[in-house]
Amino acid sequence: MIGDSRPAAEDMTPPEVQSTPGPGARPGARPVPAGLHLIATPIGAARDITLHALDLLAGADVLAAEDTRTLRKLMEIHGLSPGARPLIAYHDHNGARARPGLMRALAEGRSVVYASEAGTPLVADPGYQLVRAALAEGHPVHAAPGPSAVLAALAVSGLPTDRFLFAGFPPASGAARARWLAELAPVQATLVLYESPKRVHKLLTESMKHLGNGRQAAVCRELTKRFETVTRGTLAELAEAFAGKPVKGEIVVVVDRPDAAPAGVEDLEEALRAALARVSLKDAVAEVAAALGVPRREVYQAALKLAGER
């Protein structure tokens, strides 16, 4: 940009980074300031890791990871090794036990790196409580941004990106999933969901009912990996495409927002008549309310009126 007088990248390093490397750092590694550093790791291609993240992995005093085997392998690919430094597992099942040790390291003024198994820490990831604890005790918390399945899927989906909601994994039970989808139906934002490959077809069929058959969506599989595929279409088309189809790999489902245009009385009645010809009144109300973004109570009253006229 003309007139942009920002310093060169090497000069933009905060002054605190100019401290000497900690005792556990690799010889020749860049110094890492004390505090908790969150590293985004590749979701597929190992070369997607940032140079900043590699510097942190090379120079930090303590390494923590959701999966230590995954982090060790990633480091080996890039010519790094934990060496004599602690490499600590920190995940959903041991967080309460592992957290005190990491907090002691921070209290001693050491640099601690935390890496998720894949993607950005704290996004569908167990690092939240660690960050909360570090902040509560006044320790610096930094992020080295990078790979994210949420953003990668959003980018390739072809759906609006100006406003989106990451909703995570759907509940496993049927009733809870139905309530969860019904709550998402009127949200005026592109939806980004994670799902198990074994349940992706079920999610698509249930989404048809609660979000509307005609909503545009994309099923993103194995993003950045060798067998990456992105299948786009309406929820109805995707449900048909994945029916009886064995699915493997990591899945992200992206769903377009509902039609923002308010539904008129004629639109509502037409949609209800079509739905009532196929399904029960209860199911018709749920389907139309989701498809048109109209409050369920309003749709229910209109459905009762139509049912009385028949």
From TrEMBL:
CDD domains: RsmI. Residues 21-33 have a biased composition (Low complexity). Keywords: Cytoplasm, Methyltransferase, rRNA processing, S-adenosyl-L-methionine, Transferase. Its EC number is 2.1.1.198. Residues 264-306 form the RsmI HTH domain. It is found in: Cytoplasm. GO terms for cellular component: cytoplasm. Coiled coil: none annotated. GO terms for molecular function: rRNA (cytosine-2'-O-)-methyltransferase activity. It holds the Pfam family TP_methylase. It catalyses: cytidine(1402) in 16S rRNA + S-adenosyl-L-methionine = 2'-O-methylcytidine(1402) in 16S rRNA + S-adenosyl-L-homocysteine + H(+). Residues 1-33 are annotated as: Disordered. Residues 36-239 form the Tetrapyrrole methylase domain. It is an enzyme of class 2 (transferase). Catalyzes the 2'-O-methylation of the ribose of cytidine 1402 (C1402) in 16S rRNA. Belongs to the methyltransferase superfamily. RsmI family. This is Ribosomal RNA small subunit methyltransferase I.
